[in-house]
Specification:
By secondary structure, the protein is an alpha+beta fold. It has a single domain (4-152), classed as Gcn5-related N-acetyltransferase (GNAT) (Aminopeptidase), CATH 3.40.630.30. The chain contains four helices and seven strands. The chain has helices at 16-27, 35-44, 91-103, 119-127, and strands at 4-9, 48-55, 61-69, 74-82, 109-115, 131-136, 146-152. It has a seven-stranded mixed sheet with strand order 1-2-3-4-5-7-6, with helices on both faces. It is globular and about 40 Å long. It starts with a strand and ends in a 7-residue tail after the last strand. Bound molecules: coenzyme A. Coenzyme A binds next to strand 4, helix 3 and helix 4. Residues 27-28, 80-82, 87-93, 114, 118, 120-121, 123-124 line the site of coenzyme A.
């Protein structure tokens, strides 16, 4: 069994958009972002935390997940993707757990959207304590509904 190593950063580097676009291409059917779109994304989102997983043998990037920090103590989980051949090994859950533990002392709650028909993502979120709080019709485009999930962390912000 391949050993998976986890890494994280909150500092932008020029290779990030390319890496994220490559993974999007393999992992997402519909929500893929191009390298250019990721570049634009990081121009606006300076306050982020990125976690990724690499196969320690091949050194290949096999999973990535992002948090962006918004207003009023809310952290937003943005993107969570694991290569198809590495799924169902706990990597998605570990990427989520690492983001939650990073956010714990910084934000009061975590929110994220997922497609209403994304059963894998829904199961992982629920298993980690997230609660569905809003069904959003056409969130991802026409007839592409989303669900807003939330995990409350504590009553006040930064300690
Ligand atoms: C959603 C996604 C990130 C999940 O990643 P993952 O690495 O497969 O997630 P996990 O392995 O932690 O959990 C998936 C399942 O495998 C199971 N599992 C975990 N470790 C396992 C192991 N060692 N052996 C067998 N099963 C295992 C989990 O219990 C879970 O089961 P469940 O679906 O019955 O609850 C992945 O499916 C993906 O990239 N999807 C496409 C992109 C996407 O839709 N992202 C979400 C956008 S919001």
């Amino acid at each position: 069994m391949n050993v998976i190593r986890y890494y994280s950063t909150n500092i932008y580097s020029a290779e990030l958009p390319k890496l994220l676009a490559e993974l999007d291409k393999t992992c997402f059917e519909k929500d893929k972002m191009t390298e250019r779109e990721w570049e634009k994304f990081f121009k606006h989102e300076k306050n982020f935390f990125l976690v990724w997983a690499k196969d320690n043998e091949t050194k290949a990037l096999v999973g990535v997940a992002l948090i962006i920090f918004g207003i009023a103590g809310i952290a937003y989980l943005y993107s969570n993707a694991v290569l198809p051949s590495y799924r169902k090994k706990g990597i998605g859950t570990e990427l989520l757990a690492r983001r939650i533990s990073f956010i714990k002392n910084i934000a009061t709650k975590i929110q994220t959207h997922t497609r209403a028909n994304n059963t894998e993502s829904t199961r992982i979120l629920k298993a980690s304590g997230f609660i569905p709080i809003q069904y959003v019709i056409d969130f991802y485009g026409e007839f592409e509904d989303g669900v807003l999930f939330e995990l409350k962390l504590k009553e006040s912000g930064r300690t």
